[in-house]
Amino acid sequence: MDFRSSDTITGPRREDVLPTTATAAVKVVIVGGFGVGKTTMVGSVSEIRPLTTEETMTQAGVGVDDNFGVESKTATTVAMDFGRISISEELILYLFGTPGQERFWFLWNGLFEGALGAVVLIDTRRLEVSFDVIGRLEERGVPFVVAVNTFPDAPKHPAEALRAALDLPEEVPVIDCDARLRASSRDVLMTLMRYLHSLALPLA
């Protein structure tokens, strides 16, 4: 077979290569209920082309998946989303977005292996879908921050009201974000990193 030079695989794309200055990598998971914006957040903030496993929703999911409030959604993550972002020249975050539908939650076990922390993305129009998600994180002892994805028609509540509704400890950060915007999603990840750092500090 005649292989021309243009057909030869020479390695990863330039944008996928880790910076030579990178000395540490951290695994972070993005979790939340169905349709809260996890795939959007990973895609907006990733410095590499994100890996997604979105599939078109079919009639097979009718009566199985709860899409109340997001009836216009036509695709769903069935395994995970994956992206990468450099927080500094030395620190790299690997981002894993989890599937939101409960029938795919069995995949969470593998995705949470080795994760240092998590972002819980919530939609205030459907706050109830976050209860089980937060409960599973607490059971596993995974530190997390809560990011309120600001959908245009979503009701706005003070952070303390959301904290009370979600029964969150006082120290867990609750912040607003727009998952479509890279800067906003990066701010969420920076908040998580600062929170994890505070947990690692010795008590005075």
TrEMBL record:
<dbReference type="Pfam" id="PF03029">
    <property type="entry name" value="ATP_bind_1"/>
</dbReference>
<dbReference type="GO" id="GO:0005525">
    <property type="term" value="F:GTP binding"/>
</dbReference>
<dbReference type="InterPro" id="IPR004130">
    <property type="entry name" value="Gpn"/>
</dbReference>
<keyword id="KW-0378">Hydrolase</keyword>
<comment type="similarity">
    <text>Belongs to the GPN-loop GTPase family.</text>
</comment>
<dbReference type="GO" id="GO:0005524">
    <property type="term" value="F:ATP binding"/>
</dbReference>
<keyword id="KW-0342">GTP-binding</keyword>
<keyword id="KW-0067">ATP-binding</keyword>
<protein>
    <submittedName>
        <fullName>ATP-binding protein</fullName>
    </submittedName>
</protein>
<keyword id="KW-0547">Nucleotide-binding</keyword>
<dbReference type="InterPro" id="IPR052705">
    <property type="entry name" value="Gliding_Motility_GTPase"/>
</dbReference>
<dbReference type="InterPro" id="IPR027417">
    <property type="entry name" value="P-loop_NTPase"/>
</dbReference>
<dbReference type="GO" id="GO:0016787">
    <property type="term" value="F:hydrolase activity"/>
</dbReference>
